Amino acid sequence: MERLRGLDGSRLAVIQMAGARGLRIEYYCLTRAEGERIVGRFGGGLRPLRPESWRPRGAPVAAKPLLFGDRLVVTGREEELASLRAKYPQRVVLCIPAALAFGTGEHATTAMCLRLLLGGAGRRIAARWNMLDLGTGSGVLALAARALGAQGAMALDYDPPCVRTARENGRLNGVRGVKFTVADVHAWKPAQRWDVITANLFSIVLVRVMPKLRRALAADGDLIVSGLLADQADEVRAAAGSAGLELVEIRRQGRWRALHLRHRAKAVAKRRATR
Ligand SMILES: C[S@@+](CC[C@H](N)C(=O)[O-])C[C@H]1O[C@@H](n2cnc3c(N)ncnc32)[C@H](O)[C@@H]1O
Asked: How far is the CA of 266 from the centre of ligand 1 (A)?
């Protein structure tokens, strides 16, 4: 696994086949030249694909729909969408097929973000709120937020195929009002403030952009971050504290962690007043 460091995790599939001793590694390359570099480094072969048809062979589509509390259901099977909506009329039901972009709801980091989002959305149920999703992948978090009542949502990812997939998922689910944009979080400049921000990225990126995330967060806003491993949680938490964010909750699932942070509006205002 050490040898795979440096590859883009959202284009990488590590597949364990039932009964097989080894693992199969698949990597989706954006150009033939990139493919040739990867084959030169790791061996294996190239197979031409249309971007929209990429899906790792054997990629898991959850056997059952994923239930998040009593408000959200996520399925990977389009053919189930109508029957699930009929079965759960009081819940938001989304279909996120396994595709080029990360985020079917199955991965621990996505699942924890969705659960924290449900908590935040629950808190804001009677209020108007907006939402920003950084590193949107399949768009699952932004689409869930919008379907759960966010008045507006913006979502960005630096990978154009992810943004295309996220837009397609919006159409598939009939969810409008999410502005999907191609942008790198490092270069992105927030033009407004957001009540809820989700960022399921990598710890190193989160640490770097934490002050910017705090500036983009409305007073009393919620920041949900994941994509961090157990031994990275303290570093991300410290960066959040230095930026003026307080920890509300840590979620743990296997070796993954997710943090729910809040803008310390009162503390910041008090500090300013006593200067
Ligand atoms: C772990 S996936 C999360 C996808 C989805 N939000 C979820 O929670 O399942 C991380 C996503 O962040 C994107 N990403 C990574 N670094 C980024 C950066 N610097 N700027 C924008 N997007 C980035 C990747 O392309 C990938 O789609």
From this structure: 31
> What residue ranges of the chain have pLDDT lower than 50?
52, 57-58, 267-275
Which atom of ligand 1 is found nearest the CA of 201? 10
pLDDT for 179: 98
- Predicted pLDDT at 19: 57
- pLDDT per residue over 21-70, tens digit each? 677 788 888 778 888 888 888 888 888 775 545 555 445 556 789 999 99
E strand or H helix that includes residue 117: helix 108-123
Domains and CATH numbers, the chain: 2-53 (no CATH), 113-273 (3.40.50.150)
pLDDT at 56: 52
The best mutation among 104, 115, 143, 200 to test binding of ligand 1, ranked by most ligand atoms within 8 Å of the C-beta, falls on: 200
The H or E element containing residue 145 is: helix 140-147
* Tally of CB atoms within 10 A around 178: 23
User: What span, in angstroms and rounded, lies between the C-alpha atoms of 143 and 169?
Assistant: 8
Spell out which residues line ligand 1, taking CB within 6 angstroms: 10, 101-103, 109-110, 113, 135-137, 140-141, 156-159, 162, 184-186, 200-201, 205, 227
Which pLDDT score is estimated for 183? 96
C-alpha of residue 134 to centroid of ligand 1, in Å? 7
The backbone region for 3, taken as left when phi is positive above 0, alpha when psi lies in -120 to 50, beta otherwise, is alpha
